[in-house]
Write a structure and sequence with these properties.
about 5% helix, OB fold (Dihydrolipoamide Acetyltransferase, E2P), four-stranded antiparallel sheet, 1 helix, single chain, Glycoprotein, Type 4 Pilin, mainly beta, eight-stranded antiparallel barrel
């Protein structure tokens, strides 16, 4: 499994694999390290064992990503898996609309949630909507800054691949 982590200052590619009943993590192509993570409580506290070093990690979901605290250092990050990254590439931008773009369904599915309203300002990476396809929820994010001009589909609407969901200008 591949994950992409982006903070305000850095970006990292993390590859996770299971070998011999153990999890291994490789960050930015470096040597893989044995990894274990366990939830300590339901409030977002985790115990992380990475290369035989123990860390307490506090994770909180925030708009556009996660707030993480490790060893007294706090930072905000965005986390994408490989599938989500591919979905973002499939979201089309229509340059004909005065510098704006259309947000399109990357696959047929059901709109589970619309996270924005007409007139709302969005920044690149903001969550726009969640679409369910094949019993998996996929988050659609803004590919650029703008203002929501139109919302063409609402929660519980079924959509076909490439259907225009909203227009950002």
């Amino acid at each position: 499994m591949k994950f992409f982590v982006k903070t305000a200052e850095t970006q990292h590619k993390i590859e996770v694999e299971r070998r011999d009943d153990q999890w291994w993590a490789r960050v930015d192509g470096e040597e893989p390290k044995r990894a274990e993570i366990r939830a300590v409580d339901k409030d977002g506290l985790y115990s992380l064992l990475l290369d035989n070093r123990s860390y307490e990690v506090l994770v909180k979901k925030i708009d556009g990503g996660y707030r993480v605290a490790v060893g007294g250092t706090r930072f905000d990050l965005q986390l994408e898996d490989e599938k989500t990254r591919l979905l973002q590439k499939w979201m089309k931008q229509d340059e004909k609309q005065a510098g704006g773009y259309e947000v399109r369904a990357p696959m047929p599915g059901l709109i589970v949630k619309v996270n924005v309203s007409v007139g709302q300002r969005v920044k690149e990476g903001d969550s726009l909507a969640i679409i369910e396809a094949m019993k998996m929820e996929n988050e659609l994010r803004a590919t650029a800054d703008g203002t929501v001009q139109k919302i063409l589909k609402k929660e519980n609407d079924s959509v076909e691949k490439e259907a225009v969901l909203m227009v950002i200008g």
